[in-house]
Specification:
With 489 residues, the chain is of the alpha+beta class. The chain is 57% helix and 7% strand. Helix 10 crosses helix 11, helix 13 packs across helix 16 and helix 14 runs antiparallel to helix 16.
Length: 489
Amino acid sequence: MISEWVLYVMFYLLSAVFSAFLAYCLYVHHIHQKYDHIPGPPRDSFLLGHTPTFSRAAKSDNLIQDLFLEWADKYGPVYRLNSFHYIVIEVHCPEATKTMLMSPKYLKDPFVYKRLFNLFGKRFLGTGLVTAADHDVWYRQRRIMDPAFSSTYLRSLMGTFNEMSERLMDHLEEIADTKTPAVMHDLVNCVTLDVICKVAFGVDLNFLKQTDSPFQNAVELCLRGMVLDLRDPFFALFPKNWKTVQQIKDAAELLRKTGEKWIQKRKTAIENGEDVPKDILTQILKTAEEEKVNSAKDHEQMLDNFVTFFIAGQETTANQLSFAIMELGRHPEIYKRAKAEVDEILGTKRDISYEDLGKFTYLSQVLKETLRLYPTAPGTNRWLHEDMVINGLKIPGGCSVAFSSYVSQRMDMYFKDPLKFDPERFDVNAPKPYYCYYPFALGPRTCLGQVFSQVMKHTPHKHNCTSLSPSEFLDIQNMQANVCILLDV
């Protein structure tokens, strides 16, 4: 009797599972019918869609963004990608880019950005400035952060930028004296992290002198974890990966605990009437107090933004500097022109003032062209909640729209000879790119730290241009391999 009852239960369970699977397959078929009029590469399978192709690309030595560029050349500036029932429309059409990125009504895709709330189950970027999909939640935080990143406030921090650049050059001189090869990307990583710690939080850790910093290792582990998690949602399920997953979770916890300690220490100092550094953290806490932002939820968001600041600010800035150094080494004529401009503007001055930054016309062109070829944050997503016609194609609402600055900035329909490094594209008299060049995103969600990063990028280049010769640049090896990690996200 019992065995018969068990058989009935198993039969009904299997029937329910089969029915659910069949219903899901019918739903996936419906999605295919809804979007298959949009061109795109053939799916690898009915259910998995293009997921196997992404997995193979991730395991190869090639950049997945180059695959997107190849598809854009083949299928046009609007094409479809499938993964189970999830649809992504890749868009490299300037008009649609302008429409969707410039308007707050198109929210960030929650499927993509909510995955960064946690990192393998440990709170990571939470609902910080990058991941907040709700416009009101984002705007409230942005209002608190904006004063700390204004050009007026950053003007007072130039001394620190110069000090850290001098520290890098002193370290390079020590390396040169011993004729030891230098991995420039590692060194630039250290100095940008030092700048952020000192300028933003008043902490001087001097990573150039540390051989194995737990904090720096945590930042690098979390960056790696983001890539692993976004590429493979099943990564944490395999026992062989559990040790790596735990290390990444520990790294995320270390970053948040460090933020907790630094923020609380500053709050206590302010409450006790002590002299505190006039840095970004002080300005943020001051604005938060004025806005009466002091609940437990607000505190967690402040930690979210602490982590976001290091993850989104340090590596991206270091990558752009590294790529710029690489291209200056490849093009001695560009290097000589940049050096001549620096010599003319600064002469024998050792430090750069904030006013000097606006005079570096050609150096700015070099940095802009670097961002065109090597955008440090190569894409963003928006959720299309309504039907829209893009490039003559009707796109039904209810899908994700992906914009890749890496792809659009390398398409020959927008840039002549796009793989050539040519700063003249950004000459004041050259035609301006029309919504196909957006290394800092566009619209209300444009990068908060844009001014901060440009100050930080100009300052080390003053020292690089005046201290290194083209032959020394050309001794830098394997730079490209070292600085491509974020282009694979």
